[in-house]
Amino acid sequence: MYSVSAQTNDVEIVQVPLDVNNDFQLQPDKINEALSADPSIKLVYICSPGNPTANLIKKADIQKVLEHPTWNGVVVVDEAYIDFAPEGSSLAEWVNDWPNLAVMQTLSKAFGLAGIRLGVCFTSPPIATLLNSLKAPYNISSPTSALATAALSPTHQAVMQKYRDLIVAQRDRLVQELPQIPGIGRFRGGKESNFLLVEILDKPASEGGKPSNVIAQAAYEAMAEKRGVVVRFRGKELGCEGCLRITVGTEEEVTRFLREIRTVLGGLHKGESIDSVRGQVSQN
């Protein structure tokens, strides 16, 4: 969405890829090289935990960018999924020490309030003043304000934490049980969000299987079209060949997903067509 927003506002984009050979970690030296080469760059966007990589960016790497000796711009850290990461992972408190840092969070994920479209930005007073000068006078409605205030009360924060813990428990379950299914490859990235990025292989790993966009796409379509089990195909993104992004659900949803992905991959690895696999799954 960063690129979409930039293009909508006719803002040029300079991309510095994550390190696909190092769990999609930031490459701060390359970012700093880009900043030194082009002083017109004013914003650096970093997503932590990443999407679809589910990994936290190392704080030391973000600090390297913040410490650039000559660049005059703002580092924006998107922490939409931070509530699913270990305690102490957020950089929100860093805004007290780094005047060029802005940290964004949202009530859309762990709080389950995507419908009210409300986020928050932690930043230094000068940047906050600038943002308040740019926003619409009444950008938050009264219902949104009331719902957000209630959600952030101690009682409802405890409710959020309860459901967050249930999601983390099911995430840990997926980490343990998913690799036991023939045709499942490596987890890519990290495990600090409410989803996981996993490789789908062209045959079981014991038979030398390799990540396959064809099989991953077919598995995605077979589960979505007949069984209502929807994951996200991410095989066309850098370093994500053969990957599906799997959002963690309830215990019942995870059980159903594990059953369906096992059945679908079993059929595909036997050489069955996508249509026949769809039909087979729909009868189970």
What is this structure's SSE topology?
Blueprint: H1 2-8, H2 28-37, E1 43-47, H3 59-66, E2 74-78, E3 101-106, E4 119-123, H4 125-134, H5 142-151, H6 154-177, E5 184-188, E6 195-200, H7 213-227, E7 232-233, E8 243-247, H8 251-269, H9 274-283
Parallel strand pairs: 1-2, 2-3
Antiparallel strand pairs: 3-4, 5-6, 6-8, 7-8
Q: Which features does this protein show?
A:
four-stranded antiparallel sheet, transferase, globular, histidinol-phosphate transaminase activity, histidinol-phosphate transaminase, 9 helices, four-stranded mixed sheet, 284 residues, Aspartate Aminotransferase, domain 1, Aspartate Aminotransferase, domain 2, 14% strand, PyrdxlP-dep_Trfase_major
Protein described:
The protein has 284 residues and is α/β, with parallel strands linked by helices. The chain has 2 domains: 2-152, Aspartate Aminotransferase, domain 2, CATH 3.40.640; 160-283, Aspartate Aminotransferase, domain 1 (Alpha-Beta Complex), CATH 3.90.1150.10. It contains 9 helices and 8 strands. It has helices spanning 2-8, 28-37, 59-66, 125-134, 142-151, 154-177, 213-227, 251-269, 274-283; strands at 43-47, 74-78, 101-106, 119-123, 184-188, 195-200, 232-233, 243-247. It has a 4-stranded mixed β-sheet with strand order 1-2-3-4. α2 (28-37) packs parallel to α3 (59-66) and α7 (213-227) crosses α9. The longest helix is centred in the middle third of the chain and has 24 residues, at 154-177. The two termini are 38 Å apart. The model has no long low-confidence stretch (mean pLDDT 94). Belongs to the class-II pyridoxal-phosphate-dependent aminotransferase family. Pathway: Amino-acid biosynthesis; L-histidine biosynthesis; L-histidine from 5-phospho-alpha-D-ribose 1-diphosphate: step 7/9. It catalyses: L-histidinol phosphate + 2-oxoglutarate = 3-(imidazol-4-yl)-2-oxopropyl phosphate + L-glutamate. Pfam families: Aminotran_1_2. Keywords: Aminotransferase, Pyridoxal phosphate, Transferase.
